[in-house]
Amino acid sequence: MSVAFRRESDDEHMEPKFEIPLPPGPNWVTARGMRMTRETVAELEAVDVTAMDEEAAKKHKRLLRYWRTRLATALEQPVPDGDAVAFGACVTYRLNGQDKRVAIVGDDEADPNAGRISFSSPLARAMMDAEVGETVDFAGKAEAIEIVEIAAASAD
User: Domain named Transcription elongation factor GreA/GreB C-terminal: which ranges (predicted)?
Assistant: First the structure.
């Protein structure tokens, strides 16, 4: 039989397992984000992987490596003063005649459904450094967003 038709093992045909990708840029976190990261690492470290099958244990260890890296690289940012849109600010803005409110937080803490967006998101980048009453360009539209109110984000 030709070597071309011989299969050494099933493993060589499996899709490779990669590490969980880290978001580019600095790992800025709020006090809430730092607390959540520490809690996540503690919860993952408390799991007994010896009771898991091999694949589940590998997946768990990969997740734990991700969160340990995020904890080791976390840079807790100071609470903003509220004069301008900044990391950690809670911003009320007007877009298309509707007022919306978001908190600008770190990548791992972001949850758009809960009103928390990453500082690296296009919306947050468009509003950065703007002050109350100022309008900023967004999504290709000039002066699309008006900053209505700025406050420090909640630590909840």
Answer: 82-150
Largest CA distance in the chain: 78
DSSP class of 94: E
Residue 103 to residue 87: CA distance in whole angstroms:
8
pTM: 0.81
Round to whole Å and give the CA distance between 74 and 68. 10
Residue 98 lies in a domain: yes
Q: Mean pLDDT in the chain?
A: 89
pLDDT at 13 over 60: no
> What confidence tens digit (pLDDT) does each residue in 118-129 have?
999 999 999 999
Residue 32 lies in a domain: no
Cα–Cα dist 64/70, whole Å: 10
Is there a domain that residue 99 lies in?
Answer: yes
Please enumerate in sequence order all residues whose Cβ is within 8 A of that of 154, keeping only pairs 6 or more positions apart, or say none. 32, 90, 103
Task: Look at residue 30 and tell me if it is in a domain.
Answer: no
Q: Quick one: tokens of 45?
A: 């470290």
